[in-house]
Amino acid sequence: MLKIKFLRINLPDGLEKTYRHLADAPFSRDGQDGFEVTSFSKNHIEAKFIEKIITKEQITDPFGNVQEIIATRYGTTELTVSNFSGIYVLALRNPSRSVNALVKRFSALVGNGFFAASIVLDVERFGQYVKLHYNEQALVATKVFASNLTLDNHSTANIELLSSSNALSDLKHHFPSQDILIERARFSLTDHGRKSQLEIKASGVVGITGVKSKVLEEIITSFVSDLYK
Q1: pLDDT tens across 26-49, in order?
Q2: Is residue 96 located within the same domain as residue 155?
């Protein structure tokens, strides 16, 4: 599965100088972390963030002897920095569980004025965007997870709704008067009998699987770009 995390960032020096900052901070075997820039254009940077991760573990054998084992591994996160009408968006592909090291390194390179914040993705708005711009792709919301469903004056519930038609529309149809928080939804795209899926979360994380992964990644990137027009 491909996972993408979207962050809005501020680049006080602009994209070209940021590219130079990244290019001047390459990863080396003697270092802790660094970047590898793979492409650069007027409004787009593609790079990799490589981090050395050292773990220590103590193992005790049946005779009471203690041995410390040190293991070294390398984590790589692909990233893109895009300029969407003057707004900079950082997209992390298959990021580690914590992106703190990457953001901290980015901040150290860019300097004062840098910030990074998760982009809240409006799941319902994405559904409307897909219907308007990609209807021919037959990308359909098949599952939606929502919370804050009021049952009575002292209880609420979460709901997972499955649909063979449009889960977002069905949710509104069955609970028209409810102020429901839509937390995530799954969209399916079937091409010649092969299914690809995109799961979008309000937290700014997207998961993509299937043979049409590239198409789905382009759609979600286009949607994020559209947020800042």
Answers
A1: 988 777 889 999 999 989 999 999
A2: no
